Amino acid sequence: FKFRLSRPMTNIDEGQRSILSNLEKMFRKNAEQQLTGFFNLQGVTVEDYKIPSILVMGHLFGAIIVQGADFRLTIKIHSDIAPMRPLCARNTQVAQDQIGEKMVRDFLRELANLLGGAMRTDLSRVNVDSGLSLPLSSRGFDEVFFNGTQTRDTFMQSCRVNWGSGSVVMTQFIEIIGGWDSLQPMKEYNPAAPVVDDFEALLAQGG
Prior knowledge:
Helices cover 33% and strands 24% of the residues. The protein is an alpha+beta fold. Strands 1, 2, 3, 4, 5, 6 and 7 form a seven-stranded antiparallel beta sheet that branches. A hairpin with a 2-residue loop joins strand 2 and strand 3. Helix 2 (81-90) packs across helix 3 (101-125).
């Protein structure tokens, strides 16, 4: 994936730059995997997305927070209703023309929950402890009230996740709260590394 932040990364050192780059790689990898798995899709791709000056990026969004000792990741999935209808129909017995805002919001909320959980699992695999909020969904227009102003210690990352008939925008708002200490293991993150099941690892150790 091509790494891009929506503003120049000034006032940070190379180690912090590496942490941010790897957080985006982790985010994009899990965005692709969770959308593929949740809706049983093929040919899912991820590309750069330029965040508009007004943060409304879809009629609806689902969101979740991953919180660590000195960082917070606010993860959101933005979509209009129309591209989500075929996906919701794949997972239910409901006809597309019967799928309305409530069901789409439910699916966006669950997808946010899965994406947040996958991020938390990947963070734990590199020894970064974190907790997970409850997922929520809301109207896209509510984003105009979101204080997404970027400062020296906040960073917005974004991507568009595409499939054959549609796409969603996913964003990750990173807040560094007091320091970078707990995120130091992210320097060693490798998205291509094989994932070892935690239970299998325990058995291998004779646990």
